[in-house]
From TrEMBL:
PANTHER family recorded: CHOLINE MONOOXYGENASE, CHLOROPLASTIC
Protein name (database record): Choline monooxygenase, chloroplastic
Naturally occurring in which organism (per UniProt): Kingdonia uniflora
Enzyme class: oxidoreductase
PROSITE patterns: RIESKE
A single GO molecular function term of this UniProt record: iron ion binding
Function, as annotated: Catalyzes the first step of the osmoprotectant glycine betaine synthesis.
GO cellular component, one term: chloroplast stroma
Pathway connected to this protein: Amine and polyamine biosynthesis; betaine biosynthesis via choline pathway; betaine aldehyde from choline (monooxygenase route): step 1/1
Highest taxon above the source species: Eukaryota
Family: Belongs to the choline monooxygenase family.
Keyword field contains NAD: no
Keywords from the UniProt entry: 2Fe-2S, Iron, Iron-sulfur, Metal-binding, Oxidoreductase, Transit peptide
Cofactor(s), names only, from the UniProt record: Fe cation; [2Fe-2S] cluster
Length: 423
């Protein structure tokens, strides 16, 4: 027997017609019903406590290397850091039109984001309810999701439309076998999902509160610095790096410390002594879920005698780090974002999306040259990050120190992470 809920093209195996009681009753399973045991707090407490964020920056030591190498700590961290709160997963143009979709992974969570036929943005766990096959792959347009394993078919609203060859099945309520929904929203040009267990899925429009929950008071700062929906998407680049996800974040948050040594081409286009870091340190507010999770680093462009770099970077570069893993870089006519996804204690993926002011989107020579320069910087960073991971895994290293004049944002990141893991 097969179950048909909506008029779609049917296979010869489809036998019965079935009507759902209501669309809402379908969404009864939540991530909190996961069968996997959650990592215990007690077993990780010792590792977390090896960092003390109360010590002032000038005297503080960095988190221990076990934060970057220990498998049990890693699993605990993913659960606490990525499975709650808003997380950036994509950009608005990916689901501009009805039937657009894209897929992704956050820790062990496989998700699909789509715009249904009525124009409503939706997100679901990308897992078939029959035998757990991944349902959708990549990006594109679909009118429904057909499982590649046995053909169960779901609408873009998550409803199970067709269950093939289930003749004889008993105690099967189709309303309980739709895709499991996730909270989804947009802020400016970005798409966010929220895996928190205590949020009702698909509640009404939450966009108004997302800016505050995701960015705190920095939402206005970012908008004022040209981080908005007016730029056009240019391209995406993806890098798999053999390092813990935090190594990449730390590298980003050192206030330009490494630029003069490791990115000589980039350094010539920036006034490195003009770096200004802003991070708000009220971790008491963090405990009330009102904390500031964004730090910004602002650097002036370089001198006019290096016109190549100046063209790309403009007169000011703004680097915003949105805890835990999203970086927004606005410079000259460009904006790029870096999304750092944990793949294991010593592996991560970084997704770069590039956006450009409309007036330059047809200037292919400018785009090509800019992307080449950016690619060179990423390659240099990958070498640095993989070298640091090897050092962290060495018995010679446990903790390090901060350079107080430049590494404020990194210290802020570690403090927010500590509070996130401790509460
Ligand atoms: S696992 Fe999807 S239809 Fe069987």
């Amino acid at each position: 027997m097969a179950i048909l809920l909506k008029p779609i093209s049917l296979s010869s195996e489809t036998l019965n017609i079935y009507k759902p009681k209501s669309k809402k009753s379908h969404f009864i399973k939540k991530i909190s019903n996961s069968c996997s045991p959650k990592p215990s707090f007690e077993s990780q407490k010792r590792i977390i406590s090896e960092f003390n964020p109360k010590i002032p920056l000038e005297q503080a030591v960095t988190p221990p290397s076990s934060w970057y190498t220990d498998n049990g700590y890693y699993e605990f961290e993913v659960d606490r850091v990525f499975y709650q709160g808003w997380q950036a997963v994509g950009y608005a143009e990916q689901t501009k039109d009805p039937h657009d979709f894209f897929t992704g992974r956050l820790g062990n969570v496989q998700y699909v984001v789509c715009r249904d036929g009525n124009g409503k943005l939706r997100a679901f766990h990308n897992v078939c309810r029959h035998h757990a096959s991944i349902l959708a792959v990549g990006t594109g347009q679909k009118s429904c999701f057909v499982c590649p394993y046995h053909g169960w078919t779901y609408g873009l609203d998550g409803l199970l439309l067709k269950a093939t060859r289930i003749s004889g099945i008993q105690n099967f309520d189709v309303n309980e076998f739709g895709l499991i929904p996730l909270q989804v929203a947009t802020w400016g040009p970005f798409i966010l999902i929220n895996l928190s267990k205590n949020i009702q899925p698909q509640q009404k429009d939450v966009s108004n509160i997302v800016g505050h929950e995701w960015l705190g008071s920095c939402a206005e700062v970012l908008s004022a610095n040209g981080i908005d929906s007016s730029l056009s998407f240019v391209c995406r680049r993806e890098y798999t790096i053999e390092c813990n996800w935090k190594v990449f974040c730390d590298n980003y948050l050192d206030g330009g410390y490494h630029v003069a040594y490791a990115h000589k081409g980039l350094a010539s286009g920036l006034k490195l002594d003009s770096y200004v870091t802003t991070a708000i340190f009220d971790r008491l507010m963090l405990m009330k879920q009102l904390y500031e999770k964004v730090s910004t680093q602002i650097c002036e462009g370089g001198s006019l005698d290096n016109s190549d770099a100046f063209d790309r970077l403009g007169s000011k570069a703004v680097y915003a780090f949105v805890y835990p893993n999203f970086m927004i870089n606005r410079y000259g006519p460009w904006m790029d974002t870096n999304l750092v996804l944990p793949l294991g204690p010593s592996k991560c993926q970084v997704i770069f999306d590039y956006f450009l002011e409309d007036s330059l989107k047809d200037d292919l020579a400018f785009i090509e040259r800019s992307l080449e320069e950016s690619e060179r910087v990423q390659m240099e960073d990958i070498v640095l990050c993989e070298g640091v991971q090897k050092g962290l895994e060495s018995p010679a290293y446990c903790t390090g120190r901060y350079a107080p004049a430049v590494e404020k944002a990194m210290y802020h990141f570690h403090g927010v992470l500590y509070d996130n893991l401790s509460t």
